Amino acid sequence: MIAPVALALADAEVRFGGKAVSLGKSLRAGLPVPPGFALDVEAVDEIARGRVSPAVLRDLLKDLGGRAAVRSSAIGEDAKDVSFAGQHLTILNVTSVDSLVHAIHEVHQSAHSASALSYRERMKISGPPRIAVAIQHLVHADSAGVLFTRNPATGASERLIEAAWGLGETVVSGAVVPDSYRLSPDGELLETSIGQKDIALCISAEGGTVEVAIEPSRIHAQVLSDSELVQLHRLTLRCEEVFGDGLDIEWAFESGELYLLQCRSITRVRSA
Fold first, then answer.
1. What count of other Cβ atoms lies within 10 Å of the Cβ of residue 39?
2. Long-range contacts of range 80-87, CB-CB < 8 Å, 24 or more positions apart?
3. Contact 70/135 with Cβ under 8 angstroms?
4. Do 161 and 216 fall within a single domain?
């Protein structure tokens, strides 16, 4: 039997993986995480093997408004020294039960890709890959990006924020030169560097995502307002209360509302 668990109740890393457990902890702490469900490793294995009727997931997708983000949550993922960043898939804007099943299958397969297996070997992780899945309400991001609570390049005790238009994948993948903001630990703006955001990844009405060109007037326009930087600083303080220091945070704004998409430890920081 496939029994999706409310994401806020995902609390066992050996069943639900590091990412789902971190998101569940965030929800229980009242952080602004999009709601959703978690499928444990056994459920994902059964779906990937074609042993589950797609109808089982119909109500789940309906509860999420008919559009979902499907995120990997492998056992050991987002640990303090092992992040698996970029190794496992996230599939956005899943709009049908069949595409949800396909997305779960693709996430499952990504844990067995050559690059993911090579990463496991380099990090000396033994045993076969075991991957769970988090399925969340989809955020239609107007802007998004990453925030480090310590500067990962210098180790300095400061906030480093990178931001671009649309979904945050353009920042993570390096598809654009994002805006960069340095904040002191108490939220004072130290430096702003405006990037070149000539494309954005956006939600497609037909499902999935589409890359769109940014109008010339916005390519070099500042993404984040002063009030949005304040909101990000306040979110950082709340995340540090829950998870401690040295965090890698993924965030998004939709219609002025800030969402926390992921919070994990920074795996590589130079000494200050």
1. 31
2. 80/265, 80/267, 81/123, 81/265, 81/267, 82/123, 82/125, 82/267, 83/248, 83/264, 83/265, 83/267, 84/116, 84/119, 85/267, 86/172, 87/111, 87/113, 87/115, 87/116, 87/119
3. yes
4. yes
Backbone φ and ψ for 154, nearest 5 degrees, come out as -115, -20
Helices (H) and strands (E) in the chain, counts: 8, 13
- Quote the longest CA-to-CA distance of the chain: 55
Residue 255 has which token pair?
């219609």
Q: Tell whether 26 and 107 lie within a shared domain.
A: yes
Q: Confidence band (pLDDT; 50, 70, 90) for 240?
A: very high
> Does residue 271 fall inside a structural domain?
no
**In this structure, is residue 270 part of a structural domain?**
no
The CATH number of the domain where 151 resides is what?
3.30.470.20
Question: Are the C-beta atoms of residues 184 and 159 closer than 8 Å to each other?
Answer: yes
pTM metric for this prediction = 0.90
Whether 122 maps to a domain, the answer reads: yes
Q: Which residue type does 224 have?
A: L
Q: Where are the beta strands (DSSP E) in 149-246?
A: 159-165, 179-183, 189-193, 199-203, 209-213
When divided into structural domains, the chain yields a total of: 2
Is the model's pLDDT at 192 over the cut of 70? yes
Q: Does 34 fall in a domain?
A: yes
pLDDT given at position 197: 98
Please tell me the distance from the alpha carbon of residue 140 to that of residue 270, in angstroms, as a whole number: 34
